[in-house]
Amino acid sequence: MADMIGSEILARALKLAGVEDIFYLMGGPMLAAEKACENEDIRMIDVRHEQAAAMMANAYARLRNRPGICMAASGPGVINLTTGMANALVDGAPVVAFGGSSPVSAYGRQAFQEIDQLAILEPCVKHAFRVYSPERIPELVNDALQTAVAGKPGPVYVDLPGDVLYKPVDADTIDWGFAERPLQRPRPAGAPADVARLADALMAAERPVIVSGTGVLWSEAWPELRQLVDTLGIPFYTTPQGRGVIPEDHPCCYPSARSMAFREADLILVVGTRLNYVVNHLAPPRFAADATVARIDIDASEIATSPRRLDIGIVGDAKTVLTALNAALEGRGNTERSTPWRQKLAARVEEKRGQPGDNSRSDAQPIHPLRLCQEVTDFMNRDAVLVVDGQEILNYGRQAMPTHTPGHRMNSGPFGTMGVGLPLGLGAKVAKPDTQVIVVHGDGSFGLNAMELDTAVRHNIPVLVVISLNGGWTAADPPGKPGRNLGFTRYDQMAEALGCYSDYVEDPKDLGGALRRAQDAVDSGRVAVVNVKTDETARATTQAFTQYVT
What we know:
Elements: E1 3-5, H1 6-16, E2 21-24, H2 31-39, E3 43-46, H3 50-64, E4 68-72, H4 76-79, H5 82-91, E5 95-101, H6 117-121, E6 127-130, H7 137-149, E7 156-161, H8 162-165, E8 168-170, H9 192-204, E9 208-212, H10 214-219, H11 222-232, E10 236-238, H12 258-264, E11 267-271, E12 292-297, H13 300-304, E13 312-315, H14 318-329, H15 339-353, H16 369-379, E14 385-389, H17 392-400, E15 409-411, H18 421-431, E16 437-442, H19 443-448, H20 452-458, E17 464-469, H21 491-497, E18 501-505, H22 511-523, E19 528-533
Parallel strand pairs: 2-3, 2-4, 4-5, 5-7, 6-7, 9-10, 9-11, 11-12, 12-13, 14-15, 14-16, 16-17, 17-19, 18-19
Antiparallel strand pairs: 1-8
Helix pairs in contact: 1-2, 1-7, 3-5, 3-18, 9-14, 11-14, 16-17, 16-22
């Protein structure tokens, strides 16, 4: 067989590993690799900023439940990946990035774009390593993909020096079998005695709640979680990134009674999520101090270092452990014990619904963000992928917009990364081209990756982008925030110049029609942007995560 250079070996290894789509920004020394990937019939989606490539790969990974792939050129190109890769690390998403670097043979001689890329990326990823031999590329591609999905998922960075990428080797010396290995995802079962203890504790509880996260999504454990909820009638709550595992119109879903549920529960079962600031580390007084706390997590270190003492800690895969737990509860199911608890939470939901201040149907101008959220909710498909990114619109959307399909809700994530919205939406549409994808963006966060509209148009990725135009970062209340004001920019005109369908709305009565027309454009294959002028003084109330607020 003829010689192959490292770039061609990389492309062939990725193809054999089942990679179908790659997000990248072209540049040396990756050009030959990117061309070779095209020659292998891998769809190559070139973006306008490398951070967006990593963010698109994040959404793609979530919806395909396999690693998302991105590429970048050396030096500044790779450094531009860091925000997206750090976001994937905190999200726990299996993004694998391949970055070109200066020739290894010239290290220390001030070669073009020479910088220690591994040192830069290492804090931002689960694992980072450099390839020194082109013959080993299939082996190391497999290592990267396996590492990304093993245990708690996370991003991996692979550094590719230019002289490795362009070195020719005899193709007969390459072991391609590495690249064809299936992804290994061990599913530890948890200790049977602990599962039995948890079953007994659930049977004895009068006010149980479940708090679940993205571990349920990666494990694809939503049928088992729903079975548990249905068997015992347990109210459930999810982290913002873990929504949709059970439809949010399920009778055991009481979103607006969350604070009461956490404060008064006598048993809290945490499944597949970290006890970080998002759940206030499960600390009192937000969470009942005397509640029994049980936790299921695939990462032993999460159990061992839990910020709150666990009464029952189970190291295991969510799907496997929940299957065993449901088996232990077979024939013992009883929803009557928790009926008064559910009735109390339902009453709280009704009480809040009747309180003044619901702006979801307000005809006031400027448009209230809750009215915008309601209009989007009214027309979007039940299985739509909904991405919400921003400050006020993110908080309003979290409270007002439901999700009914596992994995179909994405946002700025626990890292609070502004600008992810449009890239996540594009990655989602590439992963699920036949599913409606809606991105609801704050105007500030939209600006960070707004040029990815160009990417969407060039690559025929039809998504609907709805911008909440409140004229700045956060609400204008209280006034005087330095750097807050951005002005009421006509992003719809910018979108039109890039080839998108666009519309601008100031009257709430025009919202429904504008959204439907935009979706019709999306259904015809176009990218659509609806720019909606919203009330700059509207400020969402939400749980405080820090001592300071914006």
